[in-house]
Specification:
The protein is α+β, with helices and mostly antiparallel strands. The protein has 2 helices and 12 strands; from the N terminus they run αββββββββββββα.
C-alpha cells in the first residue's frame, strides 16, 4: 500500500511540474471599440478566442485561435494594424533571435502566406495598442492584412519565437495598461460579416488575459515540489 502511495505521489509531482514548465493559456476576452461594430448583431460573446503558449527547443510556440459561434452573423480575427503591431506582447526577460510562422488561416477567400509575417522589438508609436497601453515591447507585423474584407482577416496563426532565456515566465502584463491590467497580449481586431465578407470595423482592439483559474507557472512548480516533499516524508516513515 505504501509503495502504491509513493508511486502515486511521484507521478503527480512529475505531471504537475510538467504542466508548470510547458504550457500556459490566455483568453482573448477584452475588447476596445468592438461595441461600435455596426454589423455585429448580436455581438459575439466572450471569449473571442484563445492564445496557447508552449515551450519548444530554444524558445516558445504561440497558437492564436479565434472562435466562431453558431447563429452569429460575424466572426472576429486579427485585422488592419495601422502603425502598430498586428499582435503585441510584453517580454520581461529573454532575447529573441528567431521567428518562424508554422501555419495559419484567413477569413473567407483569403490565402494565408507565412512570408507576409515579420516580428521585432517595438519602439515609439509602434508600442501603442489603443486602449491597451503604450509600452508593449515585442510584436508581429503583416502589411497585407490591412483592409476591410474577410480575406484580410487572420482567424488563426501558430508561430515560434526562439532565442536566449525565453520561458513562460518571460511573458508579462503591459505595465502601463490601466484598461486591462491583466492583459498579456493586445491585437488589432476585425469583425467580418459572414454574408458579405466585409468588415464593419477596422480599428477595434482585443486583449488576452491568463485564463481564470489557471495557476501561475511558479505556483504549479511549488505544488510539484510539495508533492516531492510528501514523497520524502513517506519514504522516511518506511
Amino acid at each position: 500500500m505504501k509503495g502504491k502511495l509513493v508511486h502515486g505521489l511521484f507521478l503527480m509531482a512529475v505531471l504537475t511540474m510538467g504542466a508548470a514548465c510547458f504550457a500556459d493559456t490566455f483568453s482573448i476576452a477584452t475588447g476596445q471599440n468592438i461595441s461600435g461594430c455596426g454589423i455585429c448583431s448580436p455581438p459575439l460573446p466572450t471569449p473571442y478566442g484563445s492564445i496557447n503558449v508552449t515551450t519548444v527547443a530554444g524558445g516558445l510556440q504561440f497558437t492564436v485561435q479565434f472562435y466562431s459561434y453558431s447563429g452569429s452573423n460575424v466572426y472576429y480575427g486579427i485585422g488592419g494594424q495601422g502603425s502598430g503591431a498586428a499582435l503585441a506582447m510584453y517580454l520581461t526577460s529573454g532575447t529573441v533571435s528567431g521567428f518562424n510562422v508554422i501555419s495559419g488561416t484567413m477569413g473567407a477567400g483569403g490565402t494565408f502566406n507565412a512570408a507576409d509575417w515579420s516580428s521585432g522589438a517595438l519602439t515609439g508609436n509602434a508600442q501603442n495598442e489603443d486602449g491597451f497601453g503604450h509600452s508593449w515591447n515585442y510584436g508581429l507585423f503583416n502589411s497585407t492584412i490591412n483592409g476591410g474584407s474577410g480575406s484580410n482577416t487572420v482567424t488563426s496563426i501558430t508561430f515560434t519565437l526562439t532565442g536566449t532565456g525565453l520561458t513562460l515566465s518571460s511573458l508579462g502584463v503591459e505595465p502601463g495598461d490601466t484598461n486591462c491590467p491583466t492583459c498579456y497580449f493586445a491585437m488589432h481586431e476585425n469583425a467580418v460579416a459572414i454574408s458579405t465578407n466585409q468588415s464593419g470595423v477596422n480599428t477595434g482592439y482585443a486583449g488576452a488575459s491568463r485564463n481564470v483559474g489557471a495557476p501561475e507557472p511558479s505556483s504549479l512548480a511549488l505544488l510539484g515540489f510539495g508533492f516531492l516533499g510528501s514523497l520524502g516524508l513517506v519514504r522516511r516513515r518506511r
